Structure formats: C-alpha cells, structure tokens
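Re: that chain you flagged

S.,

Sorry for the slow reply, it's been a week of failed gels. I finally had a moment to sit down with the sequence you sent. For the record, here it is as I used it:
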Amino acid sequence: MRRPTLHAVAARAGVSKSSVSRVINGEPTVAPGIRELVLAAVAELGYVPNGAARNLVTQRTNTIAIIVSDPPAGLVSDDPMFAMVVRAASRELEHAGKQVSLVLAGSDESRRRVEQYLAAGHVDGAMLVSMDGSDPLPALLARTGLPVVSHGRLAARGLMPYVDNDNVGGATKAVHHLLEQGRRRIATISGPLDMTAAQDRLTAYRETLQGTGRRSIVALGDFTRISGAEAMRQLLDDDPQLDAVFAANDLMAIGALRTLREADRRVPDDVAVVGFDDIEAALYTAPALTTIRSPMGDQAARTARLLLDLLADGEAESVILPTELVVRESA
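Prediction finished late last night. Pasting the structure tokens below so you have them in one place:
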C-alpha cells in the first residue's frame, strides 16, 4: 500500500494542502472547524507526517543532546548516578516527543566536536551533565546560542539555568545529626574541591561546626569508593580518637565503612558514619548507611523539563530541590 500523502488528507478533509500543513505543524492560526476536519482525515487515512520535511518548515530537529562531560577517573563506572540521570532525563524528553542523542565529551578534541555538532543545528537544545568545575565545555556550549541547561550548578555563574539539590542544607542536616548524638570529633571526607557540590558540602560542614567547640578535620576524596577508604585511613592516622565522619557522598562513605571494619572500629559505637545521596547500595551496607536523600531521578527529570520550558518560552528559572535526612544504623 502507498503511504497516504498530504494531498490525500487535504482532499478527504476538503481543505487546502496549506491548511493541512498548518494543522500538522501545530500552528495556532487554524480555525477549530478546519482543525477537526483535518485531524479526522488524518486518523481515517492513517497519515504519518514526513518528519524530515516538517523539520525543514519548523526549523526544529526534535532532537535533544544529553552531554556527559568528563568526570573524575573511575566515577562513571563506580557511580550509579550517571545511568539514573540519563535514564530519567531520556524518559522525560521522550515523553515530550523528543529524540535523545547521548554525547560523551572526554577530551579537548571531543569537546570541540560537540560544540561544532550543536552549532551545526543537529539538535534543538542540550542538557549538560558536568562534574568538573574547571571544565571548559559549559562556556563552549553557551556560545553556540542554542538552549542549554545544566544538571547541577556550574562554577561559572550565569552561563545557563540549572537544577541542583540543596547541597548546603543537606550537609548541614548531616552534621547537625552527629552533633545531636553528642559526637565530639566529627571529621569529613570531602569530594574534589573543583566541584560545586563538594564545595557546598564542605562549606556547610565547617560552618555547622563553628561555635560548637569542635575543630574541622578534613580529608579529600574524589567521590569514589577507593578514595573514601583511603581518606578514612588518613583520618584515623591523624586523629585516632575521632568518633564521627560525614562523607560527601555515599560511595566514599561505603569505602570508609570498609576501612573502619578493617581497623576494628565498630559503627556506630566507636565511629558514626553519614553519607550523602541515598543510593540503593546504602540500604545494603553493614550496618545500613545513614545518609542525605537527594532526589537524583527527580533532579534529572526536572532538568529535562527545564530545557523543554526554555525551548518553549525562551527563558527558564534555575531550581534547587530539597534534601532529607534518612536515619539508619550507621549513625
């Protein structure tokens, strides 16, 4: 069978081809009666618009790029966040009728190709997942002129709207919880300090301890399990009497739990541990991990919706999502 044509729809509806085209392209200037006739003819004939031809008219590709910039070594394979972000954002965009193109940018050359890809008009907009505060990609994307949003707040302010979790509020809740338990020597394992999330969580840790008579005890990690284990060993060497640790994400907290077990430190009797993110693995540590729940799937979906708003209206406001303390056995 031949595929129904625009001409056949126009003939069945008794209207001009231009009227059919305006209805199919969603133009608001069509009279309601004509719109009903055209839609009835489309349904009766089983007409499917030619996407390529329609895109030439609307100047839209209906494709969105999700761009994952280069994170710290090992984080993509270690952290379930990336799969969750891509899955949740893709679902939201596909529900809105958009095709999703996943783009990885891990080198200077690939970042230049991404900039050229966007500037050439292959996509209508982009959602950036960038971990590194020194990453040049956000500035490169911003100068393409395309609608771009960020999953997470960028170090460079004002480049593009974003959706982020309340990192400061969440970390404050974590440290307050340890203080309320009467913990005296509260350390933290920070993430890389060129990442805004790590900066915010470390700032909140320090500010919450101010005025309590407790000193800051800091070890640096890179948001991976192994860095959490190594940082915990450093903290025990530096202060064998510490009795609590706030790790800036759950993966580092899981690494810290392993080191504490190897050092024969009981959790939470000797050392309480609190993480951040509430990944699924936090339920299955021994003991189960007390943590800050940050709605990662919701954050990714909201970032996708932010981009859709930007495409529709030309403007969008950044969003900060609330966090929640989840108390389990580790603290």
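What I noticed first: The chain is about 45% helix and 15% strand.

Talk soon,
D.
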